[in-house]
Amino acid sequence: MAKETVKIPDLGGGDVDVIEVCVKVGDVVAKEDSLVVLESDKASMEIPSPQAGKVLSISIKEGATVSEGDVILELEVEGDTAADNSEEPAPAKAEPAEAAAPVATETETETASSKGEKPASGGLKRETIKVPDIGGGDGIEVIEVCIAEGDEVSEGDSLVVLESDKASMEIPSPHSGKIVSVAIKVGDNAKQGTVIAEIEYQSSAAQSAPEDAVAAPEKPAQTAEKPAAAASSPAPATKPSEQRVAPTVVSHADVYAGPAVRKLAREFGLELEQLSGTGPRGRILKEDLQQYVKDLAAGKSSGKAATISAIPDIDFSQFGEIDVQATTKLHKLTAANMHRSWVNLPHVTQFDEVDISELEDFRANLKKEGEQRGVKLTPLPFLLKAAALALRNYPKVNASLSGDGESMIFKKYINIGIAVDTPAGLVVPVIRDVDKKSLWELAAESAELAQKAKDRKLKPADMQGGCFTISSLGSIGGMGFTPIINAPEVAIMGVSKLAVKPQWNGSEFIPRKMLPVSLSYDHRALNGVDAGQFFTFMGELLTDIRRLLL
């Protein structure tokens, strides 16, 4: 057995961050297994294991900053391979300009005639940008071209995005300038040396042109000697740990994003899984991240939040006999509206019980008059009248938030919706000007709208313009429920089954008719105090209906 020290290879200069340590002491790794993941502003790099073996110690940790030559870990390997390699003469270090730079260096820039660069007038230079060393291979696919002819780019802006089966990298611009031409397109196969584009930029050395002109004759000769020397002798063997590592995009939870986007997301403290990408193949762009942050600041929810953790399809027939029936259009529409409201509105629900004993006695006394009028007087008209008066006294509940959340819209009219269950699904017809109508008028109109709903004769206008909604389970049952707000309204009242309960009057328990009620409200528009005052006032009106006259 032998030991081998694995170090950070040549990454093209500069310090990089350790964003993930993929192994721990005692792990047995295979050759090419990832040991750590490093990330700079432009790329993420996985450092592979040079040998199969066992991890004896680890010298770096997540969050550390490292550079070429820093020790990653110590590996126990079979045989004396490590020892043999360590006795080899140290290979000559490759020219940084050719080994790591993604673009032409200053020396290459000054030898424009040998590199295809063209001088431009007025201190401008042109440079041909080529694909840098991408870790070998016959070529990888161009999945995105981020520029077009005539575009102005800044140094570091992405020019193209390349992707293989296991890696993806952005090629940044070496200068700030203007794209003169683009020589690559989506779908092309690129490899080291493939021309990407030609850029025209302002040369910082323009003012020292006389000195450059004097030195120019010597530099081409010096530059020409380097390729010749390289061609005359074979490249020395290097350890696997010293070979150039191809930049890759690290994928967490199948998120498709480049390293610059990932770094920006970490700075913002955001999880990329929360975002939807608008780039090719769903790739998350910087613009997506910026828009997401703007939406958060404006109080808007992301589009992806509504589709997070989708319920998977299940073949229920494997458990027994089933009957599949298509849902109605109305059912689908209601489901979509309820889901949108639940996802976008912060719901708070308050529960209470209202003593409506006197109301019920009064309603029973009106039964004969109702038969003469041909109208059945249910508790609903009383609820409508109480809600109308409460909405008038507490205008915050009779309001809506503007789409951008910047203002409240207060309504001078009082229209109240009533939830009606039909064979096709739930609908909410709206009774207009409730505050201006009598109990008998409300009883007749609510019965008429309910029948039209069941007969599917409601018009779109019959279900628009509501300020507040009442959803009553009537005699169905239940001690309370959480109704979902009918946006853009800011509150909804739920009514459950009436029950006779003992109530203490100060000297004894007496039976009283108690009505369970609930109020769900949008906490963006209403505070607990606003909703509590509204709900308490409405309960007082129902307890003593004489207050409806005040």
Q: Helices and strands in order, then pairings?
A:
Elements lengths: L1 E6 L8 E6 L6 E2 L4 E6 L4 E5 L4 E6 L6 E2 L4 E7 L3 H7 L8 H4 L6 H5 L1 H4 L8 E7 L9 E6 L6 E2 L4 E6 L4 E5 L4 E6 L6 E2 L4 E8 L6 H7 L2 H15 L14 E2 L10 H10 L17 H12 L31 H16 L2 E9 L1 H9 L1 H7 L5 H15 L5 E3 L6 E3 L5 E3 L1 E3 L2 E3 L2 E2 L7 H16 L13 E5 L18 E5 L3 E6 L4 E14 L5 H16 L7
Parallel strand pairs: 21-25, 25-26
Antiparallel strand pairs: 1-8, 2-4, 2-7, 3-6, 4-5, 5-17, 6-8, 9-16, 10-12, 10-15, 11-14, 12-13, 14-16, 18-28, 19-20, 21-24, 22-23, 26-28, 27-28
Helix pairs in contact: 12-13, 12-14
Q: In the CATH hierarchy, what is the class of the largest domain?
A: Alpha Beta
- Which fold name is given in CATH as the topology of the largest domain? Chloramphenicol Acetyltransferase
Q: What CATH architecture label of the largest domain applies?
A: 2-Layer Sandwich
Number of strands: 28
Low-pLDDT windows of residues: 81-116, 206-253, 302-307
Gap between N and C termini:
96 Å
Instruction: Using the CA coordinates, give the radius of gyration.
Output: 37 Å
User: Helix/strand-derived class?
Assistant: alpha+beta
How many domains in all? 4
Given the C-alpha coordinates, what overall shape results?
Answer: elongated
Q: What's the story with the biggest beta sheet?
A: 7 strands, mixed
Q: CATH H level of the largest domain: which superfamily? A: Chloramphenicol acetyltransferase-like domain
Total of DSSP H or I helical runs spanning 4+ residues: 14
The percentage helix is: 25-40%
Average predicted confidence as pLDDT:
79
Strand content: 25-35%
